[in-house]
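RNA pseudouridine synthase 6, chloroplastic
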Amino acid sequence: MAVFTASLAAMALAGRSPWSVITPPVIFSLSRNNVYSRFIRPVATLATSLNTVDAGTFNLDDGHQERQEYTRLLPCSPQNSSPRIEHLIVSEDGTAVDYISKALNIPPLFVADLIHFGAVHYALVSPKPPTTATSEQVRLFKEVTAASVLKKRASIKGKTIREAQKTFRITQVDESVEAGMYLRVHVHPKRFPRCYEIDWKSRVLSVDELYVVLDKPAGISVGGTTDNIEESCVTFTSRALGLTVPLKTTHQIDNCTDGCVVLAKTKDFCSTFHKLIREKKVKKMYLALTAAPVPTGILSHYMRPVNFAPKIVSKDCISGWHLCELEVLSCKEIPWPDAEVEEKYHIEDCGWDGSKKVAYECEIDLLTGKTHQIRAQLAAIGAPIIGDSMYMPAVIAERENPCLNPFGQGKKTEFSNEDDRTKAVGNWLSKYGKEPHVAIGLQASLISWFDRVYYARTPWWKQ
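Predicted structure tokens:
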């Protein structure tokens, strides 16, 4: 048996390989004063299925050897803990709950909660370790993927190695695992505590026999994340409407963005809506609150083709980069939100060095739909969105030293070699900040297709 630990940031830097190993194991911390108890939602089905599971005891990560009884179904604090991901290669047959509990020395009930959150994934065969893996990890990988071992496993008969290495989410607490399988356990899933503060019925704009239109609150994922499908708009809206079949995601907007999203009741409508989006028959309008004025007209950039944020854009056409276009229909001065409003809606102070007396409300027609497109494009022209702690720091840095941005107006005309370019890109990425915790000045204000038009409520900066 082997246990490997990695941070989320390290995974991105290492090409998001699940084998990245840079931090020592961390024992999950649980306080007796954990305020999560007031947020517990009905979990009768889960409780029934676990009525024979021993809660056991739990080590505290406070430098002491004290042990305490673990008694809650949902142990995680509403505050996000430091990232912790464990990578296991199963050494004996059994259930996922029992194996993970023993391997990581955490209570079976806690493992069951992680499974309920969607925080446990498996593959029939372990993914190939990266070049950063230790010799022991490489040895173990070769041992469990040796042809003499694989041919004895009936579960992978007829599958290629690539097919067997595909990961899936474990969804049942009694799901079985077998020797040689790979498990990825997100011990500290990303949390969305705002789910429990929202009156979800009041956020529903329309209920149709095929779909629901939601005015999504900021600070919550639309359809869930890799490690948390429980605390999402889909889950809580389905529950608020009393639906027996959960709603389905048809499109995404950023966690920190609020406004109109369409959730499907059926797989067929989900497919239909995806087709409408591909055919550009769905219109999406946004309101953006920026720290500097934005010129009206069409704004075009090319986005670097990587799957993780922050997104880098360039005015120059670069081979392989994705075209991003939006049209700014209007831009008007409005008062900068006062401190009371910013505090109420958890708007982060990103250190903007300009005047905080006047802000600019822009109406935007999104012509292409790339992740972080509006945020990245507005930042690229020096007009970051208020509260955007990821993109605003880079704008501030570029104002102080225009040469920092290898794709900006003050960039070098060319690089002497690829190493210099790579170094410049890495240095530029280091100027960005972290993803906002809750809201920014961006709202998906309208969504329409055919004769159906839906408007979001008044944005937070006007309330």
